[in-house]
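Case study.
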Amino acid sequence: MTSTEVVFVVLSAVGSIGAFRLVTSKNVVHAALYLVLTLSMVGAAYLVLAAGFLAWVQVLIYVGAIVVLLLFSLMLTKAPIGREALDNQQRGWAALVGAGVLAGLVFLIQNAFGSAPRIQIQPATTSEVGASVFANFVLPFEVVSVLLLAALVGAVVIARRDERP
Amino acid sequence: MGPLAQAVAPSHMPIVLRPLLPELILVGTALALMLLDALRPTPDQRPFVLLSLAGVAGAAAATLSLWTWKGPGSVLGGMIAADRFAVYFRLVILAAAALGILLSSYYLDRAGEARGEYYPLLLFATAGMTLITAASDLILIFLALEILSLSLYLLTGFSFRRLASAEASMKYFLLGAFSSAFFLYGIAFAYGATGTTNLAGIATALASRVNGDALALIAVGLLAVGFSFKIAAVPFHMWTPDAYQGAPTCVTAFMSAGTKVAAFGAFLRVFGVAFLPLAHDWRAFMGVLAAISIIVGSVLAIAQTDIKRLLAYSSIAQAGFILVGLSAGTQAGIQSAMFYLAVYAGTVLGAFAVVAIASVRGEEHTALSSYAGLARRRPLLGLALTAFLLSLAGIPPMAGFIAKVSVFSAAVQAGSWPLVLIAVLASVAAAFFYIRVIVLMYMQDPAPEIEGVRIESDPAGWAAVLAPAFLTVVFGILPGLLFGLLRTASVVRF
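After joint prediction, the assembly is written out as follows.
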């Protein structure tokens, strides 16, 4: 086993433990923190696989934005954080769906990259991704800023309830 | 060539911004309006109205100059199409925006809901609408769709003190977000099937195949669902009556015209260019959507007792008639759908403008019973609403008649006469509820509690009613004016 493989296995093992604790944890905040662990391990696995851009996007968006949003909404909605009311008695269905997704992914990955690979992987460095974004996709990139600006104005409209004459 | 291949060798194309000038002017005006509101807060809304109108006029001038564009068919890396198709749709949308601004100034004055963010949001929505009709890449279409939707969710809920407005906004937002997910999933499948999100690239990739594959068909289905939400076709119409009724009437007028024109513009471009090689697969699907939209929209409209809801269901049925043109899958079909859209935009905007004026203040008197004797109280208003309703019903000499005839003849030429038969029967039934309102206005006495209410209007309000009424009659008598333009504008370049 090469050193890269060892690192990959360790990251996967830690990520899987995090994922397992995520669904078994009785405390919602702990579950959210285990989610951080799992998502960070996935990001680190991307880094090991030389997909640097993807790794940082994973950290920025999933760990930085989505989990923080989750924690904020837990805080703002005053949802029960303790041990009660966390189990919705749907374990059978959840296990079925989880097993189905796992089987589908194993089949697809085996089919695409197994003994007779059907897909050629073209590794792209961060600088290549950046060059593409700012050369071929520069217009959508700029249009996103208009979208965000409209959303910002909208947030002000909704949040500001004072009336001017 | 997928983006990864492009990433390895980025093409250093020249930046040609002129085909994007209308959107730049609109967004620039919106920014100027926000600055003006922040630096010189004033209760007087007239500067905002005038500046917004100037922005829309500037964008229209920039659009007109593109009619004679001699440059490449698409610019900015194939993102923006510089064709007359986009010019035509932009002009219709900008006209709707100008009338919407005029009506808004009238409405917000009376309702006392004028706030500085209104006109920037309206211009953002307009920019999204014009951008989507010129976008020739699925990613850009998605972003433009989001800009226009987001702005419209906010405008729908702008009268937040009215519960109905907030509720309408919430419903529109939730269902709109749902439809965006469909659309995005469709883009993912289209990319998976063809390796590109560029419309021309998708068409090339699909044309070189003998059999349509499953991935491309799933993409077609998901994208059609996403568009159907925006054009309010049955069974994706649930949000329409509530959003149209709950929104401030000036917003309803603008969005019922603008959203449908913009979404249909992109719909025609995506299906008439990118997925044209699969036309024999999606034509039947469009035909079914068209038929059930026409039937459900017409039948449910009969049961309505509120004029805004009645017009909402009518607009669902109208989406069905426009889909009849699209389902033909031919040049004549696209041309007739484009004519129908311009006529529909003017008619529905004018009808909602009459509703806004007859409501006197905000959202009062929108029940159908309030329209009893309207023609006797305000003859000109009654006459204008009669013209709009006759046009929606498709009765000559109004433009709606020519529009219906042209989509039907395009569909018959394409061989889908069962669909045309259903559509003709439904439009005969639909004429009932339009005529009922006209009878109410002319033949009945006003209710005692409505008798004393004085309906007044200002020049802005009258402009929003009379300009569409004039066009509805003119295009009904001289449809050649518009069809002359459409001969070249219905050809999609990329």
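Observations recorded in class. Residues 72 and 90 of chain A are 26 Å apart (CA to CA). The interface with chain B takes residues 122, 124, 128-129, 131-132, 135-140, 143-144, 146-147, 149-151, 153-154, 156-158, 161, 164-165 of chain A (CB under 8 Å). We will return to this complex in the next lecture.
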